[in-house]
Amino acid sequence: MSDKFLIFTSAPNDYDYGWNKEVLAIAGHYDDKPVRLINCQSEYHKNYQLGRYMSGMYFIRDMESIAEDIKYGHFKLTPECIQQLKECGYDTFT
Q1: Are the beta carbons of 35 and 29 closer than 8 angstroms?
Q2: What 3-state DSSP class applies to 59?
Q3: CA-to-CA distance for 52 and 15, rounded, in angstroms?
Q4: In what order do the strands lie in the sheet with 33-39?
Q5: Are 89 and 48 a contacting pair, CB within 8 Å?
Q6: Cβ neighbourhood burial of 43 (10 Å; 0-12, 13-18, 19+)
């Protein structure tokens, strides 16, 4: 799993394109709404998928933008998500 291509979203899996893989069904919560963690194959696929989620006006963040939501308490990671991110070598949110 490459952390460059991870997306956090509240969109239902009906919005996922076939090239993506759901890493965790519940990676955390944003304002008490469950948020999934999605892994995309490439930067191109990630950007395409972000547009799809935005079309439904769902919560979306990539790894670069999620830190601020965590810092201010809007987003809380599950222990399972923290473990997945550690396995990627991403220790920032532990």
Answers
A1: yes
A2: coil
A3: 7
A4: 60-62, 6-9, 33-39, 21-30, 75-77
A5: no
A6: exposed
Residues near 16 by Cβ (< 8 Å), separated by ≥ 6? 22, 38, 49
Alpha carbon of 79 to those of 14, 27, 28: distances in Å? 25, 8, 9
% of the chain at pLDDT higher than 90? 52
68: domain CATH number is 3.30.70
Other Cβ atoms closer than 10 A to 55: 10
The conformation of residue 40, written as its DSSP 8-state character, comes to -
19 is a domain residue: yes
Residues in the chain: 94
Residue 92 lies inside a defined structural domain of this protein: no
Render pLDDT for 38-83 as a digit per residue (tens, 0 to 9): 999 899 999 999 999 999 999 999 887 888 888 888 888 999 998 9
